[in-house]
Amino acid sequence: MHELVNTRHNLQIDPHLHIWGWEIGVYLFLGGIVAGMMIISGFFIFTGRAKNPKCSCFWIPSIALIAISFGMGALFLDLEHKLYVWRMYTTFQWQSPMSWGAWILLLVYPVLIANMLLKLPEFIQNRFSFLKKISDTLNSKDSTMRMIGVISMVVGGFLGMYTGVLLSAFGARPLWNSSMLWILFLTSGLSSAAAFIHMAAHDVEERRMLAKADNTFLMFEFVVIILLIVGHLSSDLVHIESIKMLISGAYAPVFWVFVVGFGILIPLIIQLAAVNNKIRYTAIAPVMVIIGGLILRLVIVSAGQASNWSTSVFK
């Protein structure tokens, strides 16, 4: 804590610079888990699992739609000029990650709605006959359903990558300035989504398959974290000092205990035992993965803002 206070006091901050708070961390987390949900749901639809009435691909879009709306709400709270957000959609700046993100987020909604239309609740079908006709049309051809699955995976992939690219584009923040960040956030989003879905899935086979997939995502996420650390340590001094905040500095306890230990290694051990029939499936490991994914974003956002190219920051 004392080191964190010293770091903040040493920072030279532009008075016009808007410092991000918890809202961005929550937005990045919800965006990441929605991206993972879209990829998993799209994969299920593409591979024909939608023929199973218990397939989670029918209820995932509803949860994802709520989650991305809350994420957009968190992002809106962080905006300094809230009344002018509509201007993002009057132009497209291909060199701006923020512009890419704004339009990707706009695509997420129709894709999720198209996914929801594949199977409508009975009360909606009875009240809105035109929606039932659309649903029947979408389900009439396997090629149409596979196309929806592919689009869901593609848009979800772009959304997941964007959450990391948004930060890595800030060259003035050396901790964020890494090509591994988008891979880390995409993998973490997939892991959190797989954990949530296999915790709530009704189909036993699907739950087991997603638990195995989550184990793979967790192992890959751990490898990406190591590569992120190695990449910074093999770079220039300012990147070395920025990553030290995570591995041995003010943010190290939270990073190692809650992100790596609580969010990756412990649930990985539990789920490996579960898929090998050593213990029963429980909600403990998935909940740990989801909480770890949220803390990962909050730590990266906070530590990244404390990293600076100014020589007065690091002693």
Write up what this structure looks like.
This protein has 315 residues and is mainly alpha-helical. The chain has a single domain, classed as Formate dehydrogenase/DMSO reductase fold. 72% of the residues lie in helices and 0% in strands. It contains twelve helices and no strands. The protein has helices at 2-10, 22-46, 60-78, 97-116, 122-127, 129-140, 142-168, 181-200, 204-233, 237-247, 252-275, 284-306. Helix 2 (22-46) packs antiparallel against helix 3 (60-78), helix 2 packs across helix 12 and helix 11 packs antiparallel against helix 12 (284-306). It is globular, with a radius of gyration of 21 Å. Residues 1-19 have low confidence and may be disordered.
- CATH-defined fold name: Formate dehydrogenase/DMSO reductase fold
The helix-and-strand class reads mainly alpha
The CATH superfamily is Formate dehydrogenase/DMSO reductase domain
Overall 3D geometry? globular
CATH class division = Mainly Alpha
Biggest sheet statistics: none
Number of domains: 1
Question: Would you list the SSEs in sequence order as H and E?
Answer: HHHHHHHHHHHH
What is the β-strand count? 0
**What's the CATH architecture?**
Up-down Bundle
Low-confidence spans:
1-19
Distance between the termini: 17 Å
Can you give the helix content as a percent range? over 70%
Short structural description:
The chain is mainly alpha-helical and 315 residues long.
What tags apply to this protein structure?
12 helices; mainly alpha; single chain; disordered N terminus; 315 residues; Formate dehydrogenase/DMSO reductase fold
